[in-house]
Specification:
Shape: globular
Distance between the termini: 73 Å
Structural class: mainly alpha
Helix content: 55-70%
Radius of gyration: 40 Å
Number of helices: 53
Number of strands: 2
Mean pLDDT: 83
Length: 1411
C-alpha cells in the first residue's frame, strides 16, 4: 500500500510520519505522481507544455494541502503567516510567508528532480532520492522561516521594551533554539540517508552515492537554494509596497534575511555532529543514536572525522620558486569551520558590536558541538581559540558579552574534556565504528553533555553482561574493518593523540603562551589572569582551568618524558612552551586551592589526583616539569588543608550540629591528601625519591614544623595541621611496613618526622589536660584528631615495634639516625597511649544527645570520627591492642605493667559515669556502653597477653580479669530470685553484653565450667518466649527482652569463636526450641493476629530476627571449615555437637517451616528468617562434608545423609505449597505457607545446589523422606524418584512457585543435577522427561490428586515437551547453561511480571552488638 511504501523509506524522525495525512505520506504522493509523469515523458506520451501544466497543477494541489501543516509544525514559533494562494505575510505580522517560500522553492527546483530519465536506474532508489531532496528542501525552508521569524520577534521585542526599566523586563522565550535544533537534526539524518544507502553485507562500509556531495555541502546547498528563492520572493514583495516605504522594507528584509541564513547554516553545522556522531566513552550519557543502518552511520562518522592535510599547490609559488604549501580542506570540522566563517563574515563590515558578539557566539557554539565528538584540527584551534575565544575570556566581558563568554568557556571545556585522561583509544574506536552508547537506543535528546559527564553511570553500564555484549559488538566491528591490518585501531590511537595535542595547543592559546618561544604573549590574556588575579573567583574560569589541568598536564608530562627519553633537550625553544604552560596551569590550580569559596576549591580535587597519577608513573623525579608538579601538589594539598579548617568560634556551642558541608569538604580533602601521597606505585626504597615519597616528605615536614613552632611559643598546634597529618595514615603505614622489610634512609627520615609531629601534639594535649590551661572547645577537636591519628597509625606502630625488637638484638650496629627514630617512637607511643586514656576519661563521648539518626554528622561535641559511633580514644586503644602481638609487647615495655591498672581504673570510672547518667541517657559524661565495652575488650586482650608472656595465671593481669569478669556474673546472680520485669531484663541484658566483650578464651572457659549465673541469662530469654500474647503493643519488658536476645546471642557467639561445649550445645537447643514453639503458636493464630514479641521492635529487623540461634551453628561450622591443616579430634567432636543440635531441634523447625498459615500481615512472620538460618546452616554442613573427608566419615555414623535428605524434602515441600493457578484462573493472591520472596529462597537454592554435589545418595534420601508425605503415580522408576521429584520441583519453581528473580539460580541447580547423574546427557534428559509426567496420587500442599508436580505449564502436548527436552540436551552437550534459563522461561509460561514481587534480596545479618 501507499502507506506501507511511505513507511518503508523513512527520511525524517522529527516530523509526523505515522499519520495517514502526515508530511512524508504527502511527499510520497507527490513523488509517485511525478514518477508517473517522468514515465510518460520518457515514453513520449506527453509534450513538454502539457508536462509543465500538469506538473504545476499537481504541485499547487500538494501545496494547498501540505504546506500549511508543514509551516505550522516546523516554523510556527512566532506569528508566522501561512497564507496560501497570494496572501501576503506582512498582513500576518511577518515579512516572510513560509507557505509562499516553500512553494517557490519547490517550483524552482522541481524540474531538476525529473531531469534524469535513465530507465535502468533503480526505481526505489530514485524514489528515495526524490523524497529525500524534497524533505531536505522543506526542512530548509522551515529552518529559514523559523530563523526569520525569530529575528522579527527579537527586533520587535527590544523596540517595544527599550523604554522600560531593566527590572520590569521579561525575557523573551527562545523558542527558535529548540525548533532549529530539531529541524537541523532531521535535516542531518535526511542527508545521511540520501548520501549513504545500506548494503547487504552488514560489516561492509557503504560508499556514498555518486551524485551526492559531502554531508556538510548537502546541508549548505539546501540552505543556499532557499536563500536564492527567498531573495527572488523578497524582490517581488518589495515592489508591491509603496515607493516611499520600499527602502525601509528592503533594509528590514535584508537584515532579517542575512540573519536567517546565518542562523540556518549555524544550526545545520551544529546539529550535524550531535546527530550523526557518537560520544566516545559515554555509553549512557543520554545520547540518542539515530535509527539508521549502523554501517551508514559508520560511513558518515568516517566522513565527518576526516580533515585535510598539508599539501602543495603547483600553480602557486612561495617566492622561492617552489610550490607553495597549502592546507587542504577535508570533509570534517575544518570544512565546517570554513563554511561557518564564510557565512558569518560575509557582511562583517556592517556588523556592530552586538552583532559581532552574536556571530562569535554562533561560531563558538558550533565549534563546541564538534569538539564534543571529534578531534579539533590544530588550524581550527588557532582560528577559534587564539583569534576568537580568548578575546571573550577576560572578566570584563562578563557584562558586555555574557553569551559569547559562556560559549567561549564551554568550547574550551569541551576541547579539554574530549581529551580526558580517562578516555581510551577503545572508546574512540567504539564511537567511530557505531557501537558506542552501549549499543542501544536511549531516550535522551540528540545531544549529550561533555565527555566527562555521567562517568559513573557510563562505567556502571559497561559492567558484567552489558560490558561483554559491548566488547563482542566492538570486536565484530573491528574485525570487519581491519582488512588493512589494524587500520581502525591505528586511526583511533591517532585521534586520541590528536585530541590531546589539540587540548595542549588550545590551553597555550587560552593562557596566552606562544608556541614559538614559550613566552607569554600578554600578561592579561585569556586564562592567564586566573593565575595572577582574583578572577579565580569566577566559576567559569575555575571549571575551565580544572578541565584543562585534567587533560593537558598529564599529556605535557608524557611529551616531556618522550623528548627526554629520545635524547631531546626539554629546554629547547620548540618545546619551551610546554614548561611555561605547565607552570601557568599549576599556578592557577594553586590559586583555586587557596580560594575562599568552597565550590571553587572543590574543582581542584580531581586535577590534583590526575596529575599525581600521571606524575607517579615514573620511579623518580628527573625533569624540571616533574619538580614543578611536585611543588604544585604539595602547595595545593597544604592550601586545601588550611582552607577547610574550622572557623573561629565553631566549637563555642558544642550542642549544635556540625556544619555538614564543611565536614564533607574535610573528608574530601583527606581523600586528596591521601591520594597524592599514595605509595601504591613508584619506588619506596633506594637512593632516588619517587614523586609520592617527595610529596609525602614535604607535607609531613611542613606539619612537623608547624607543630614544633606552636610548641615553642606555648600554643596548641593548628587543628588543620593535625587534620592533614592524620589523613596520611595509609601511605605512612605502608612506608612503615616497607621499612620493616627493607631499611632505607628515606623511609626512616619520614617516619621519624611523622612520629615527632604526632608525639608533639599528644604531649601538648596531655599537658593541657594536666594544667587545665585550655577550654574544652579548644581541646576537643585537637584531641579527637590526635586519637584518630593514633588509631590510624597503629599498623605503622606495629611495624616499628617489630623494628625496635630487631634493633635491640643488634644494638651495636644501629646507626645514630635509627637510634633517634627508635627513641622518638618510644616517646610518641607513650604520649599517644596517655592521650587516648586521658581523652576517654576526661572528654565525654557526647556532650549532648546524638543526632546521627537525623544527620550525617553528629553534634559538634562528639568525640567520634566523622559519622562514627564510638569514642575515638577507645578506638585508638582498641587498634593499638589488637594490631599485633609485637605492638602489645611494646606497649607493656613502654608503659609498664601499670597500664592494666590504669585501664581498669578508666573502665570503673566509665561504668560509674554510666550509672550516674541513668538508664536511657548516654550523653553528658562518660562514654556510651559500647565504647565502655571496647575498653573492656582492650583490658581482656592485654591481660591475656601478659598472662601468656609471664606464664602466670594469678598475676596482675589474671587478678584484674577475674575482678572484671565477676562484675557481670554477679549482676546476673543478683537477679536470680527477682520476678520477670523490665528492670531485671535490663540488668541481665547489660551484663550479658559486658560478658560478650571479654576474650573468647575466657567466655569459652565459662561454658566449659558453667555456673548458675550463666543459666539465669538463658532462663530469662526462654521465659520471655512464654510471655507471648497476641496484642500488637510491646511493653518495656518485652523491648528489653528483645535486647537480651541479642546479648545472649553475643555471649554465645563469643564462646563459639573458641569451641562449642556440651553446655553451649544444650543452650542452643533450648533457645531454638523455645523460639520455634512460640513461632508455631503465633502461626496457629493466622496471618491477621497481632504479637507483642514478633514485631519490628522486639523480634524483627530493627532488633534481631528470628533464627539467630540456628545461624550460630552455621558460624561454628564455617569456623571449623576454615581451619588449615589436618582436622583434629576436637574439630570432629565439634561437628558432631553441631549436628546433634540440629537433629535435636529439627522436629520443631520442620513443621514450623511447612506450616500452612499464609504470610503474616499483622506481625513479623518469624518463619522466613528461621528458614533462611536453617538452610544456610544446612549448606555449611554440606560444604564441610564435601571438603573434609574425615569429618564426613565421622558424621556418617550419625546418619547425616538421612538428616540432609529430610531438609531437602522440606525444601521441595515448600515449593509444592504454592498454587500456580489454572488455565482459567490466576494463582490466588493469598498463598499457603510463608512467603518465599526473600533471602530464604536464596538459602534454599544454595542448599539444593550444594547438596546435589554430595552424590545420588542424598537425592535418594530426599526422595524417601518426601514419599512419606505424598504418593505419586507409577510413571517413574522408584530408584530415581528423588531426583525426578527434585527436577519437578525446579520446573514448578520456574513456573511461578518461586519469585521471578530466583530463575537466575535455576541453571546452576540443573547443572548440579547434571553433575550428580555423572554428566550423562541421556540420563539427565530422561529425568527431565519423567519430571514432566510425574503426578500426585495424594494431595501435598497446593498439588491436588492427579496434578503434575511440575505445574500446569508442563501439561502440554508431547511435541512441546519433546522440543523442551531436545533443547535441554543441546545445553548439556554444549555446556551453555546460561541458555537454559531462556529455555525454562519459554517452557514454563514465560516471564512472571507480578508487581508484588520484590527485587533480589540480600542475606540477613544477625549482628547485635549495638542493640
Amino acid at each position: 500500500t501507499l502507506k506501507h511504501r511511505c513507511r518503508s523509506v523513512k527520511k525524517v524522525e522529527t516530523l509526523d510520519i505515522e499519520a495517514e495525512d502526515g508530511v512524508e505520506c504527502g511527499v510520497a504522493r507527490l513523488v509517485l505522481a511525478w514518477e508517473e509523469m517522468r514515465a510518460e515523458a520518457a515514453s513520449a506520451q506527453i509534450n513538454t507544455a502539457a508536462l509543465g501544466e500538469k506538473s504545476s497543477a499537481i504541485l499547487n494541489a500538494w501545496l494547498e494541502r501540505y504546506v500549511p501543516m508543514l509551516v505550522h509544525r516546523c516554523a510556527g514559533g512566532g506569528n508566522v503567516g501561512v497564507g496560501v494562494g497570494g496572501s501576503r505575510g506582512s498582513e500576518n505580522g511577518t515579512l516572510c510567508n513560509g507557505a509562499e517560500l516553500l512553494a517557490l522553492v519547490l517550483q524552482r527546483h522541481s524540474s531538476s528532480l525529473l531531469a534524469n530519465t535513465n530507465d535502468a536506474e533503480d526505481g526505489e532508489q530514485r524514489e528515495g532520492q526524490i523524497k529525500g531532496t524534497l524533505i531536505m528542501l522543506t526542512l530548509a525552508v522551515a529552518m529559514y522561516t523559523s530563523a526569520f521569524c525569530d529575528y522579527e520577534e527579537e527586533h520587535h521585542y527590544y523596540q517595544q521594551h527599550q523604554h522600560q526599566q531593566q527590572h520590569n523586563q521579561q525575557a523573551r522565550s527562545p523558542w527558535a533554539n529548540s525548533v532549529l535544533s530539531d529541524l537541523g537534526s532531521a535535516l542531518s539524518i535526511t542527508a545521511l540517508r540520501v548520501r549513504y544507502r545500506p548494503v547487504n553485507d552488514k560489516n561492509a562500509t557503504p560508499q556514498p552515492e555518486p551524485s551526492c556531495p559531502p554531508l556538510i555541502d548537502m546541508l549548505v546547498n539546501a540552505v543556499n537554494l532557499v536563500k536564492e528563492s527567498a531573495e527572488h520572493l523578497f524582490s517581488q514583495t518589495i515592489q508591491q509596497h509603496p515607493q516611499q516605504n520600499q527602502e525601509a522594507i528592503q533594509t528590514a528584509i535584508q537584515q532579517a534575511h542575512q540573519y536567517a541564513i546565518r542562523r540556518s547554516i549555524a544550526a545545520c553545522i551544529k546539529t550535524l555532529p550531535e546527530t550523526v556522531l557518537l560520544p566516545p566513552g559515554q555509553e549512557d550519557s543520554g545520547h540518542r543514536i539515530p535509527s539508521v543502518d549502523r554501517a551508514c552511520l559508520r560511513a558518515a562518522s568516517n566522513e565527518l572525522r576526516s580533515v585535510g592535510g598539508v599539501g602543495t599547490n603547483p600553480n602557486t609559488t612561495n617566492g622561492t620558486g617552489t610550490s607553495a604549501t597549502v592546507l587542504a580542506v577535508g570533509t570534517g570540522m575544518d570544512k565546517a569551520w570554513k563554511v561557518l566563517l564564510e557565512s558569518e563574515r560575509q557582511h562583517q563590515q556592517q556588523q556592530q558590536q552586538a552583532e559581532e558578539d552574536a556571530s562569535a557566539t554562533r561560531l563558538l557554539e558550533c565549534c563546541e558541538a564538534w569538539a564534543r565528538y571529534a578531534a579539533v584540527p590544530i588550524p581550527v584551534i588557532d582560528a577559534t581559540v587564539r583569534q576568537l575565544a580568548v578575546s571573550y575570556l577576560h572578566p570584563s566581558r562578563q557584562q558586555q558579552s555574557p553569551r559569547a563568554q559562556a560559549a567561549a568557556f564551554q568550547y574550551l571545556a569541551s576541547i579539554f574534556e574530549s581529551a580526558s585522561v580517562s578516555l581510551t583509544a577503545g572508546d574512540i574506536l567504539a564511537a567511530a565504528l557505531g557501537v558506542g552508547a552501549g549499543g542501544h537506543r536511549s531516550k535522551g535528546g540528540t545531544g549529550g553533555k561533555g565527555p566527562s559527564s555521567n562517568k559513573k553511570n557510563a562505567n556502571k553500564n559497561k559492567r558484567g553482561k552489558s560490558k561483554a555484549r559491548h566488547n563482542k559488538r566492538l570486536g565484530k566491528a573491528v574485525a570487519s574493518q581491519d582488512e588493512d591490518g589494524g587500520a581502525a585501531e591505528v586511526a583511533a590511537e591517532e585521534e586520541l593523540l590528536a585530541r590531546r595535542n589539540a587540548a595542549c595547543v588550545a590551553a597555550a592559546a587560552a593562557f596566552g603562551i606562544s608556541l614559538a618561544d614559550g613566552a607569554a604573549v600578554e600578561e592579561d590574556a585569556g586564562l592567564r589572569l586566573a593565575a595572577t588575579t582574583e578572577s579565580t573567583s569566577v566559576h567559569g574560569v575555575c571549571s575551565t582551568v580544572a578541565a584543562a589541568a585534567n587533560s593537558v598536564l598529564p599529556h605535557l608530562l608524557f611529551l616531556e618524558r618522550g623528548d627526554s627519553e629520545g635524547g631531546g633537550e626539554g629546554g629547547m625553544p620548540h618545546v619551551a612552551w610546554r614548561l611555561e604552560l605547565f607552570s601557568a596551569i599549576t599556578a592557577a590550580i594553586r590559586r583555586m586551592c587557596a580560594s575562599p569559596v568552597r565550590e571553587l576549591r572543590a574543582l581542584a580535587y580531581e586535577p590534583l589526583m590526575v596529575l599525581h597519577a600521571a606524575l607517579n608513573s615514573v620511579a623518580c623525579v628527573s625533569l624540571r616539569m616533574e619538580q614543578v608538579a611536585v611543588d604544585a601538589i604539595c602547595e595545593c594539598a597544604l592550601a586545601l588543608a588550611t582552607s577547610c579548617g574550622y572557623y573561629q568560634g565553631y566549637f563555642d556551642n558544642l550542642y549544635e550540629d556540625n556544619d555538614e558541608e564543611l565536614e564533607v569538604e574535610r573528608n574530601d580533602v583527606r581523600d586528596v591528601a591521601r591520594s597524592v601521597c599514595s605509595l601504591d606505585s613508584g619506588a619506596i626504597t633506594g637512593t632516588q625519591k619517587s614523586p609520592s615519597i617527595l610529596i609525602l616528605e614535604r607535607i609531613v615536614t611542613a606539619c612537623n614544623a608547624a607543630m614544633q613552632h606552636a610548641a615553642s611559643v606555648g600554643q596548641l598546634p593548628p587543628e588543620t595541621v593535625v587534620h592533614i597529618l592524620s589523613s596520611l595514615a595509609k601511605p605512612l603505614n605502608k612506608l612503615g611496613k616497607n621499612y620493616k622489610e627493607q631499611r632505607s634512609d628515606i623511609g626512616r627520615d619520614i617516619l621519624t618526622t611523622s612520629l615527632l609531629a604526632l608525639g608533639s601534639v599528644c604531649d601538648q594535649l596531655n599537658s593541657s589536660f594536666e594544667s587545665s590551661s585550655h577550654s574544652m572547645s579548644e581541646i576537643l577537636p585537637l584531641s579527637r584528631l590526635a586519637c584518630m591519628g593514633t588509631a590510624s597509625f597503629s599498623p605503622m606502630f606495629s611495624s616499628l615495634a617489630n623494628v625496635t625488637g630487631e634493633s635491640a638484638a643488634a644494638a651495636a650496629s644501629n646507626s645514630d639516625a635509627e637510634k633517634e627514630m627508635i627513641a622518638t617512637f618510644r616517646r610518641t607511643s607513650l604520649a599517644s597511649l596517655r592521650q587516648s586514656i586521658i581523652s576517654t576519661a576526661r572528654i565525654p563521648e557526647l556532650i549532648a544527645k546524638s543526632t546521627l539518626e537525623s544527620t550525617r554528622y553528629d553534634v559538634k561535641g562528639a568525640m567520634r570520627g566523622p559519622g562514627g559511633e564510638d569514642h575515638v580514644g577507645c578506638i585508638a586503644l582498641l587498634r593499638l591492642s589488637h594490631e599485633s602481638d609485637y605492638l602489645m609487647s611494646y606497649i607493656f615495655e613502654v608503659y609498664g605493667s601499670s597500664i592494666l591498672h590504669d585501664l581498669s581504673c578508666l573502665y570503673q570510672g566509665l561504668k560509674t559515669s554510666e550509672l550516674e547518667r541513668g538508664v536511657g541517657c548516654d550523653y553528658g559524661k562518660g562514654v556510651t556502653p559500647v565504647s565502655r565495652r571496647v575498653v573492656l575488650r582492650v583490658i581482656s586482650r592485654l591481660a591475656l597477653h601478659e598472662m601468656k608472656e609471664t606464664n602466670d595465671q594469678s598475676g596482675k593481669g589474671g587478678t584484674i580479669l577475674q575482678q572484671l569478669l565477676q562484675a557481670p556474673l554477679g549482676e546476673m546472680r543478683s537477679q536470680k530470685d527477682h520476678p520477670f520485669s523490665a528492670d531485671k531484663v535490663f540488668r541481665v541484658c547489660e551484663a550479658s553484653f559486658d560478658l560478650s566483650f571479654f576474650s573468647p578464651e575466657l567466655v569459652a572457659d565459662l561454658f566449659e565450667n558453667p555456673s548458675d549465673d550463666l543459666g539465669i541469662m538463658f532462663e530469662t530469654v526462654i521465659t520471655g518466649y512464654s510471655r507471648l500474647s497476641f496484642s500488637s503493643e510491646a511493653d518495656v519488658a518485652c523491648q528489653q527482652w528483645g535486647r537480651l536476645r541479642g546479648g545472649a546471642l553475643s555471649v554465645l557467639r563469643t564462646s563459639l569463636k573458641e569451641n562449642i561445649s556440651e553446655y553451649c550445645a544444650k543452650i542452643l537447643s533450648a533457645l531454638t526450641k523455645a523460639e520455634c514453639e512460640a513461632a508455631t503458636v503465633q502461626s496457629n493464630q493466622g496471618p491477621d493476629s497481632g504479637s507483642n514479641l514478633f514485631n519490628d521492635g522486639v523480634v524483627g529487623e530493627e532488633m534481631m530476627n528470628a533464627g539467630a540461634y540456628i545461624a550460630l551453628i552455621r558460624e561454628c561450622l564455617d569456623r571449623i571449615a576454615k581451619k588449615k591443616g589436618e582436622i583434629t579430634e576436637k574439630s570432629m567432636n565439634e561437628c558432631r555437637r553441631c549436628l546433634s543440635v540440629l537433629k535435636d531441634v529439627a522436629p520443631n523447625v520442620m513443621p514450623l517451616l511447612l506450616h500452612q498459615s499464609p504470610e503474616a500481615n499483622s506481625h513479623v512472620d518469624p518463619r522466613p528468617t528461621i528458614a533462611e538460618a536453617w538452610f544456610v546452616t544446612m549448606t555449611s554442613l554440606v560444604s564441610i562434608c564435601r571438603n573434609h573427608e574425615q569429618i564426613a566419615a565421622a558424621l556418617v555414623g550419625d546418619d547425616v545423609g538421612s538428616f540432609l535428605g529430610d531438609s531437602l524434602s522440606a525444601a521441595w515441600a515448600l515449593i509444592f505449597l504454592k498454587d500456580l493457578g489454572t488455565k482459567k484462573a490466576p494463582p490466588p493472591a493469598i498463598q499457603r505457607g510463608m512467603s518465599l520472596d526473600g533471602p530464604q529462597t536464596l538459602a534454599i537454592n544454595n542448599f539444593m545446589s550444594e547438596s546435589m554435589l554430595l552424590g545420588p545418595s542424598i537425592l535418594v534420601a530426599g526422595g524417601r523422606s518426601i514419599l512419606s508425605h505424598i504418593q505419586v503415580n507409577d510413571a517413574v522408576d522408584q530408584s530415581s524418584i528423588g531426583v525426578t521429584i527434585l527436577a519437578a520441583s525446579l520446573l514448578r519453581a520456574v513456573s511461578g512457585a518461586l519469585p521471578p528473580w530466583a530463575v537466575e539460580d535455576t541453571p546452576t541447580l540443573f547443572r548440579s543435577m547434571f553433575e550428580t547423574v555423572g554428566r550423562d546427557s541421556e540420563k539427565f534428559v530422561q529425568i527431565l522427561s519423567d519430571s514432566t509426567k510425574i503426578k500426585a496420587s495424594s494431595p501435598l500442599g497446593a498439588v491436588n490428586v492427579g496434578e503434575l508436580l511440575a505445574g500446569r505449564y508442563l501439561d502440554v502436548s508431547d511435541r512441546h515437551i519433546e522440543s523442551f527436552l531436545h533443547q535441554s540436551k543441546a545445553v548439556t552437550i554444549k555446556g551453555d547453561w546460561r541458555k537454559l534459563k531462556v529455555i525454562l522461561k519459554a517452557t514454563c509460561g514465560g516471564k512472571k511480571k507480578d508487581a508484588g514481587f520484590n527485587l533480589k534480596p540480600q542475606f540477613t545479618s544477625w549482628e547485635c552488638e549495638r542493640l
